[in-house]
Amino acid sequence: RRVDPRVFADWESLREAVDWEYGQQTLKADQKPVASLTPYLVQGRAMIESEPDANPRHYNSPQRVAMALYEAGIRFRCVDQLVQSAWFGGMDKALAKEWIRYIIAQAGLIEEEAKLREALTRVREACPEKNAQEWLAGVKTIYRFAGENFGAKGDACAFGFVDRILAERPKTEDAVYEIGRIVIRRGGPRPAEALAQLSRGAIKAIEEACHREVDADYVGWGLGALLDRVPNFDLLLISRRMKGFLEACRRLGMLASRDQERIADRLLAHPALDWDPLSTPLIDLQTLIENLVPERAPAIFGKRLIAHLSGERLLRDDRLIHAREEFADRVAGWRVEVIAGEIDAFDAELRAGDLDPHTYTFLRTLGRENRRALKRLIRHLHGGERDAFRQHPSNLAWQRRHPDWDFSQWSGEGSELIQTMTATGRGELNLSLERDPEELLKMGSYVGSCLGIGGCNAHSAVANTLDANKQVVYLRDGKGAVLARQLLALSEEGALLTFDIYWRVANFDETAVTNAFLKFARTLARNIGVRNYDHKLEETYTIPSLVAREWYDDYPHVFEKRPGDSGETSA
Questions:
Q1: Beta-bridge mates of residue 429
Q2: Considering the entire predicted model, what is its pTM?
Q3: Sign of the alpha-carbon dihedral angle for 283, 289, 295, 297
Q4: CA torsion through residues 350, 352, 356, 358, sign
Q5: For the chain, which has fewer Cβ within 10 Å, the N-terminal or C-terminal residue?
Q6: Which pLDDT tens digit goes with each residue over 96-117?
């Protein structure tokens, strides 16, 4: 039989595989037959073709993975049957690769044939047609972390959690799995129960709070800080108020690590978080809560429990259990308020005058790049000089290099360019260049891009705020809320460059909004006296750094006009 040696990482692996293939006659009668090598070679070749440049000796290379799959087929008949099935053989290459990695992960965690067969069957039946590859990667992650941290208990925990997720079929699986990964990895008093017993509402709350990747990151960082610093934190209880809790985690995750630790340490010492409302004697809880929040105690306990504690009307055991469950719900809400209150108190400490806490948080999470420039801006803001950076010598020198351009609308020295449009269900919307430096710093945080707080290119938001050759267009609704934004820049060659449109709200009326941004850029370029950049006519462009030293070039995007132009422009 011809064997493709590329499938294996080295000749030793190839020799072992051939030995397994032709060693069946040496097995004892009670041993199962060795798996056939052929389907594994087919899958191995497919993986190599999808990743031709991978290092064959890396543990995660296609060759090593193919070998690990064959080893799993040797150990488990159910794996061999799955690999040799027509369903598996006709699978898309990318999805097959994810299935292979999932099978290997499960085979390394589950030692019993029956349990592994059950795991493979239930996941195969639940795997959705849409986004199957990402979905399966999330399932694999949960099982792997559960098995590594909890052994047999973790396997049950993973089954319970995955069953919950499979039942709901959320649109954003990755966010849910990220929460599960953090909980399993970080621990807590009841991590297995917290995962397996997540309610339908809690799963939906996770999906809504983490539908953007950057928000999922913030939530994960904040939750990780709490579970790391508050070892007795009861996630199962707090999940009763998951929506408010995740928002608090998101706000906490947006802070610098040292600030997260500072708030978490405050919570560690808070007497509201270290007891179980379902098992602690009620008389002790009554004394504790009345001392902590005397004005809130009646609302937290409720009339029935107060009457029971006073002896006025004793509850039967079943009703007492129900009353304690209601009490636990209210305690969960109170604890969310405590966490949010500590974050609010920290925000208040950051405030100086009328400055936005986002500005300070941005500085505290910013790396070395453009940090000095942002500090200078904050000093100007402290002094009430919100436009001082416009008079920076580097910005003025840049304007003098282009005496033929009209900067009145670009720099805000003349009339503002405002364009209106109407979107379905959102009324009248406005596009305009943003002038407030603190709002400009939010260009990444608003839309969840890498220019936001903690992002890898957050320094670029500083450059876009301070450099005179860069501007940001915001699309706002009638209440002033940002819905989308676009970066503009003027090149030294005399062209207005437009970059990608980033959405804060899912791409509503995408055609109309794109056309409105395009029309705004064309009008602005005409008023300045420059052309709109077109990569078909010019391959290069120069956008120098002025006040800020570092800038991330996201590369200009040329938008083609789409049917249905919209937008009225006024000055």
A1: 421
A2: 0.61
A3: negative
A4: negative
A5: N
A6: 877 888 888 778 777 788 888 8
